[in-house]
Amino acid sequence: MDEQEENWYMDDYEEEEELLEEVDEEKGDNDLSGNYLDDLETIEGDDDYEDVLFENALSIKSISSEILSCTIPVLKQAYWLLILILVSCLLWRIVQFLLNKCFPSNGKICRTFVTIILHIFSICLGLLVLYHASYDLWWIVIGLIIALTLLFTLNINSDISNSHGKYTNWELLVTIGICSSVQLYCEFNKNPVKWHQIRGSIMIIIMKCISFSMENKNFYKTINKEPCCILLWTPLYRGLLWLSYCLCPASLLFGPWFNPLRYEEMIRNYPVNDKPFSLKNTIISLFQTVKLFGLSLLYLTYSTCFSHTLALILKFQPWLHAYFASQSFRFSHYFVCISSESSMKALGYYDKYLIKSNKQENTKEKDNSKDVYKPIVVTRPLFIEFPRSLVEVVIYWNLPMHTWLKQYVYKPLRPYGHVYAILGTYTASSLLHGLNFQLSAVLFSIGIYAYIEYVFREKLATILDACIASRPCPESCCHSNKNSFWVCWCNVAFSCLAIFHLAYLAVMFDTSEQQFKGYNMWHTMDKWYNLGFLSHIVAFANFLFYLYL
To answer: Is 169 in contact with 213 (CB distance < 8 Å)?
Structure first.
């Protein structure tokens, strides 16, 4: 029985309060009087009757006991897998530290030996994590990795380091073909529940192999500067490098994606270039790992137990139910992202940025560059729960994936037009998540919403000469209205609109049995129908208003 068929619930709110008092006095006795049932509309089916009994019997005591009984099993189930991942990352980091202490970094043979040992150790730890995850379709994951290893070992684009201008990356085309074939095979030939278990790992592997293939030319340019480049860039080493990058225990199950060029550089040049890896910074990063690990478990508990229970209590209030149901989905996403961030910290991975400043000394212009190391950040929950705009939600939802889509999809498509680049980006994102109608519908909807909001607020900011664009204005902006009272309230109103859209779009990601096998089209349409397709109507009205302006 859906929300529209149960409007009687709010009409009889006062009678339910009396019933709850009787239930508390009788310590859970659910014997309802006939007069009370006579006042209700007809209840269709035994399942609906049980739902009514459940709603009527809820109390603070029962809610707290239910949350407690939910929390312990959930934490036990996730705890050991996360511990295994963190321990694997810490072991790899310890071995890396010991090898670099025992062998000098300036020797060509020693550096090659240390690099190969670290790659092999990463592969072994990744296989251990994959085995412990106990996927029923683990052989598909291994088969995809082996097929891509053979492809990268063949090195069919080995001459691109000497190429100039445009060239055809045949390796990339074959890579996309292999990954698409695996996705189609699993989507239409495998058990949906089992396929849903490995969908996340397959997505991470696809992102890694595409970036690995597209960075091939940059790898050659980097390696050719090394004294041991002849040995390092043999086909066998390239296959070993791919296996190590793909099976890295920190990102095999939950992500995140990280740059293969930076990963390879971190292994080869650890004691030479990566200055922040002192003992003090290492201890600080370990404490941050523990903090992120605990935070991820809090997100998991809130997602699975607290917000889910609140959504059940507010089942008959459609929009409050939609908000907490979508919040449950968002917090489960935070759990995955923060746990992956903690594993990357345990591994000791840092993104490396090169800051250049031009200064003239002795009448000659010199480039003074400085390496800046920053820990990888996967998501920013506060920017999603309290967004300035949907554009910020898209960016901060998964920062590594946003970087991947921008670098490998949006920028190559940008010469064909901004709109085509955006549509291509969201198409690629939908394909990465699998051929699923619900995910595709949500991704395309939020993409269209974000674009409409972006162009509308840009035009509105120009007309009103105010800082009300989708992204915060820089301090040096030329708007005359920056922090006025009405400007702040305009931004708050747009923030509330973004929260409204988020509650609507993610309402179908509930905790029903369908979550274990993926949601179908009718589930999505039914959820949006119950909310009157209001979000789509508001977005369309927003677009018409933009055209009017």
So the answer is: yes
